[in-house]
Amino acid sequence: MKNYISILPIAFLALLLVSCNDTKKSNYSNQTDVEVKTTTYSASNHPGKKLMETKCYVCHNPSTDHDSRIAPPMVAIKSHYLNDDTSKDEFINSVWNFVEQPSKDKTKMRGAVKRFGVMPYQPFSEEDIKLISDYMYDFEIDEPAWFKEHIEEESNGKMKHRNSGKNDDISASAKSKTPADRGQEYALNTKKELGKNLMGTIQKKGTLEAVTFCNKQAYPITDSMAVAQNASIRRVSDKPRNPENQANAKELGIIARFKKAIASNEKYQPVTEIENGTVKFYAPITTNSMCLQCHGSLQKDIEPKVLTALTNLYPEDKAIGYDVNEVRGIWSITYKQ
C-alpha cells in the first residue's frame, strides 16, 4: 500500500495512537457560528489560528527542522497560493478547492507533492478551512527560520517568500490563556510529538513498522510530554487497542457526548472542570483516512500483514471497524491551575 502524506492540513494524526456532571457542564456547549467577513480579529484571537494549530501542525509544524519534515510548513502553502494580485476570496477559494478534493492536478505545490505525496481526502468542514485561510491571508504566520532562504534558492528566484500581514503582541495573549486553552495546548503539543514520529515512520518504513512504533514508543513519548508540561496526560477509549487505555465510567460518558455531537455534525467544545485548584480537561480524538490503515474495516482498510501484527501485539484489540470522522477516544488531561 502506498502511503501518502498531507500537503495541506491533516487531521489529528495522533489519533492513530489512541459528563461532566450537571453542575459542571457549562463548558460543554455549542459554539457560535463565526462570520469571518463581519468580525474584526487580532492575530491572537482569530479562530483560524487555533484551527490551524490543532488541525495542521501535527504535520505542518513550523518548529520542525527541514530534514525531519513530513509535510511543508504552512508558510510554504501561503507562499505558493499567493501572488501579488491574489485577492482574499481567490486565496481562500483556491485552498478550499484543493482540500475539498485533493489531487495532483489541483495542487500548486508540485515539489512538495513529489517529496511528500498528495494529501488523502479528509472530511474537513468548508467553514474551518476558510477560517484557516482567512487567518493565513490577513496575518503573518509562524515560519521556520530556514524557510525564506530555502524557497528562494530552491526555486532559483522564481518563487517569492510571502508572509506579510498584521500581527500583535502574542506574549500578551499567552498570559490570558484560559484553563481550556492550556488543556488544549497540552493535548496539541503531545499530538504533534506523537504525530511527527509516527508519520515519519509511516513515510520512511510503512504502516507495518508504524504498528511496532506505536507499541514501543507511544507511552514513553506521551509520558515524556506529560513530565515536560507538568500534567497527567492519558489517551483513553471505549474501544481500546491496549487495555491500559480503557476509559473509566466518567470518561465513557464524555466519549458518548462527543460521539453524539460529531455524529450529528454539531459544534462542540472540550470539557473543562476545575475543582480545588485542579483542572480536568477532555477533548475528542477523531479518525481520519490515515487512521483506517490500522483502525478501519478488516475487509477493506487493514492489510493482512498489518492485521497479523496487531493481533500478535494486542490480542484484546477492540480498536477496529472505524470510518472517517468518528470518535475513537478522548484526551484526558489533569493539571494544577
Structural descriptors:
337 residues; alpha+beta; four-stranded antiparallel β-sheet; 13 helices; 4 strands; 43% helix; 9% strand; globular; disordered N terminus
Short recap of the structure:
It is built from 13 helices and four strands.
Can you put this structure into words, describing what you see?
With 337 residues, the protein is of the alpha+beta class. It is 43% helix and 9% strand. It contains 13 helices and 4 strands. It has a 4-stranded antiparallel β-sheet, with helices on both faces. A hairpin with a 2-residue loop joins β2 and β3. α10 (207-229) crosses α13.
Topology:
Blueprint: H1 47-55, H2 57-60, H3 74-81, H4 88-100, H5 110-116, H6 126-138, H7 147-154, H8 170-174, H9 179-205, H10 207-229, E1 232-236, H11 249-263, E2 271-275, E3 278-286, H12 292-295, H13 304-313, E4 327-336
Antiparallel strand pairs: 1-4, 2-3, 3-4
By secondary-structure content and strand pairing, the structural class works out as: alpha+beta
Strand tally is 4
The value of Rg in angstroms is: 20 Å
Strand content: 5-15%
- Helical stretch tally: 13
